[in-house]
Amino acid sequence: METLPVAAFTVQGVPHALVAARLAAEEGIGVRHGCFCAHPYLMRLLSLGREEIHRYRDQVRRGDRSGMPGAVRASAGINTTDDDVQRLLAAVARVAAGHPPIRYHQDPRTGDYHPSTGAPTWPPRPRADRRSCSPG
Q1: Positive or negative torsion for Cα 16, 17, 20, 23
Q2: Mean pLDDT for the chain?
């Protein structure tokens, strides 16, 4: 059976949501971020203790997802080339190397980051359920 590669990763010192936002805004690379509907497994992979998990859950219950733990997931498609993979790796290296070239602001309700460019953003108003596009 043929399979397609999937890689989940974190960048030390950079929130997963900011990594995803930078890859999208600066590099045009779409990835997912969060817990991918596998919260217990990801909490174990991230080596989070019981107290940390309770602290995050309490924060989310108060409507603040800004500190949610998680990872970034990149998936390759059938048309993904070696050059595409190299481009992703180079982009992640740039994110890991330093400060973003533009400012980002974080929406605490969703935990997502958005470029602070002064340009209109999408969507133009908060989602009705106040959740991010990738709540997982």
Answers
A1: negative
A2: 86
Angstrom distance (rounded) from CA 73 to CA 95 = 15
Mind listing the pLDDT tens digit for each residue in 61-103? 999 999 999 999 999 988 899 999 999 999 999 999 987 888 9
Picking from 116, 115, 117, 109, the residue whose alpha carbon sits closest to that of residue 133 is: 109
> Long-range contacts of range 82-88, CB-CB < 8 Å, 24 or more positions apart?
87/27, 87/29, 88/23, 88/29
Place of tokens 């733990």: 69
What pTM does this model have? 0.81
| Dist. CA 14–CA 41, nearest whole Å | 21
pLDDT in tens, 49-65: 999 999 999 999 999 99
